[in-house]
Glutathione S-transferase
Amino acid sequence: MPSYRLHYFPESGNSYKLALMLTLCGERFEPVWTDFGGGVTRTAEWRKAVNEMGEIPVLEVDGVKMTQTAPLLLKLAEQYGRFGAATEDEKFELLRWLFWDNHKLTGYMATYRFMRAFTEKNDPQVLKHFRRRLEDFLGILDGHLQHNEFAIGAKPTVADISMMAYLHYPSDEHGFDFAASHPAIHAWLGRMAALPGWKPAYELLPGKRMTNYAK
């Protein structure tokens, strides 16, 4: 079986996506904590040695460094025969929600949460703009989940793993009370948390935590 090393920091929902996928597939990984808050990923040395794109996570598979979470999730789904799609129509739906998440939900939530919780001084108008966009995206997802148990039907896929990652963090970080505002999302997060082997990010990803200024 392959050996895995995951370069991450605990607050990274994208890191959590890969950590959770590997865990749900029964695999272990060596955690490699990265000082993202200290700026190491912006250094020329780190980018040359680890990831030229300057991003976390990085998944090493038998010593080969691989990046970009979405294609890695798809690769792992195919490799392990889990959390993928069974038909061409399902594959299209999986990609549709995975790409929507990357461009909209994760894209905005990751930035909003980082600015809101982990930036000491932020611009209220910028946060207001991101919040307004997120409320639109969350409304879309909540509406979809009112009629679907998971993203593409009755079974969870990597689209669900991708979409739930940033939403499952503590509410004092992202500032949403999904039980009150988006009950279908809240129920879906509960279904995801009930999957055998599921663990939250701060259990799967150890290491020094960044200061939460939103508390």
